Amino acid sequence: MNLQLTIGQLCKIFELEDSTQDHALVVNEVVYDTRTLVHGSGKMFFALEGKYRNGASFIEEAYRKGVRVFVVQKKPNKAYLDAVYLQVSDPLDGLMKLAKWHRAHFEIPIIAIIGTHGKTTIKEWLGYLLKRKYRLVKSPKSYNSKLGVALSILELHSSADIGVFELSISLPHEGKVFNEMLAPTHVVVGHIGDKHNGNFSEKNGKKIEYFNFIKGCKSVFQLESKLDDFLSGNKGVIKLSSSAFQSSLAKLGFLDQLKEENAIMALGVASYFEVKIPEHIQFSDIAMRLETFDGIHNSLVINDTYSLDKESLEAALQYQSTLAKSKKRVLLLPKEVTIPIQEIDALIERYAPLKCHFSDELTLEESSLNNAVVLVKGNAGSSMNNVAHLLKLKQHRTQINVNLSTLRKNIHTLKDLLPAQTKSLVMVKANAYGTGMKRTAIFIEELGIDYLGVAYTDEGVQLRNYGVKCPILVMSPGPDDFHDCIEYDLEPAIFSLTLLDDLVRTLILKKRMAFPIHLKIDSGMNRLGIEPSEIPSFIDILHSQPELHLKGVYSHFAESDNQLDPSFTKHQLDVFLGVCEMLSKHVSYPYIKHMANSAAIINQPKASLDMVRMGLIVYGVADHLRAKKALEPVIEWRSEITQIKYLSKGDTVGYNRAFLAKKETTIAIVPVGYADGFRRSLGKGKGTVFIGGKSCKTVGNVCMDMVMVDVTGLKLQEGHTVEIIGENQSILDFAAQLNTIPYEVLTALSLRVHRNYVLT
Question: Does residue 443 lie in a domain region?
Answer without folding.
Answer: yes
